[in-house]
Amino acid sequence: AKELGRNTFAFFQEDMQSLSDARLQMEKSLYRALKENEFEVYYQPQHNDKGEVIGAEALLRWNEPDRGFIPPMEFIPIAEDIGLIHELGRFVLLQTTLQVAGWYKQGLWQDNWRISINVSPMQFAYSNLLQDITDALANSGLSASMVDIEITETALMSDLERALEIMEQIRELGVSLSVDDFGTGYSSLKYLKDLPIDRLKIDQSFVRDLITDKNDYAIVLAVIAMANALSLKVLAEGVETEEHFKQLELMGCYTYQGYYFGRPCNATDFAQNFLKAGH
Ligand code: C2E
Ligand code: CA
Ligand code: CA
Ligand code: CA
Questions:
Q1: Which residues on adjacent β-strands are paired with residue 43?
Q2: ipTM, 2 decimals?
Q3: Does the beta carbon of 132 sit less than 6 angstroms from any atom of ligand 1?
Q4: Structure confidence at residue 132 (pLDDT)
Q5: 73: Cβ below 6 Å to ligand 1?
Q6: Contact (CB, 8 A) for 109 and 270
């Protein structure tokens, strides 16, 4: 038994070693990636119930030369850990606003559309987020009314006072605010009333089994009803099928995002597939 214990420990040590090697490698690559422009912003359309485009969400992609595309869920937590998220967040803000301003100048982006940009709770708490947004707007010339910032419930949790202050400042710029992944965090219904929020995004985990799971159905119905009652906009994420779409529409939802309407794609493909001059 003693022998086995030692072997197990040796294996464990080895595993931990290769894990931390991989992690260290990833950290190094992230710094390089920012310098070498390996990050790219993808765009996923958002739609109204007529199926018309009403905006898009900017989604970050890392095209690692050896490994190919690495999903944001793998590298964003590490970027947060090593503090690179602030610079990465600035990159997303600058790049995205510049791109959308370009589409607007070409007549491809409409006045009443919005581009949604994700902001990490870390950015929300510790970056000079207001300055970063102001800089991106000034640099691109994009109208603030075309920009929406997506935050998660986590961003509100640590320091509600400070969160409220930042949110009010962002709103004063003319930028709108959405709560992302709504329903997955520990949110109090109180903040929906008190915080300057424009929109709830119903998390895709509730939408996925909407048709078959009674509980998911009930949650989605309640969130939509609550949003409508509080005069908040509501958007359903992860709409993958026509059935999802039709059901959500019946439930009183009126804006949507998901594979049924379109997958995230690079700027060129997005313009080709979803933007047409003068429509
Ligand atoms: P999120 O903000 O909830 O973004 C939605 C995710 O759902 C995206 O994954 C999108 O590709 C995916 N998605 C869209 N429609 C569907 C659908 O119909 N079905 C399914 N199954 N999935 C769908 P993605 O691009 O891998 O991003 C994952 C997460 O990474 C995002 O979740 C967000 O939390 C984070 N992220 C992405 N870009 C950024 C960024 O620029 N900054 C920050 N801080 N986080 C980002
Ligand atoms: Ca989001
Ligand atoms: Ca989401
Ligand atoms: Ca999510």
A1: 58, 265
A2: 0.97
A3: no
A4: 97
A5: yes
A6: no
pLDDT digits (tens, 9 = 90+) for 51-99: 999 999 999 999 999 999 999 999 999 999 999 999 999 999 999 999 9
Q: Which atom of ligand 1 is nearest to the CA of 41?
A: 41
Q: Once rounded to an integer, what is the mean pLDDT over residues 137-157?
A: 94
Ligand 1: nearest atom to the Cα of 237: 15
CB atoms within 10 A of CB 50: 7
Compute the Cα dihedral for 214, 216, 222, 227 and give only its sign.
negative
Q: Is the CB of 77 under 6 A from ligand 1?
A: no
Alpha-carbon distance of 236 to 214, in angstroms, equals 17
Ligand 2 centroid–CA 244 distance in Å is 19
Q: Are 187 and 157 in contact (CB under 8 A)?
A: no
The answer to whether the CB of 238 is under 6 A from ligand 1 is yes
Give the contacts of 202 (CB within 8 A, at least 6 positions apart).
182, 183, 220, 223, 224, 234, 235, 236, 237, 253
The CB of 96 under 6 Å from ligand 1? The reply is: no
**Tokens found for residue 9:** 């420990």
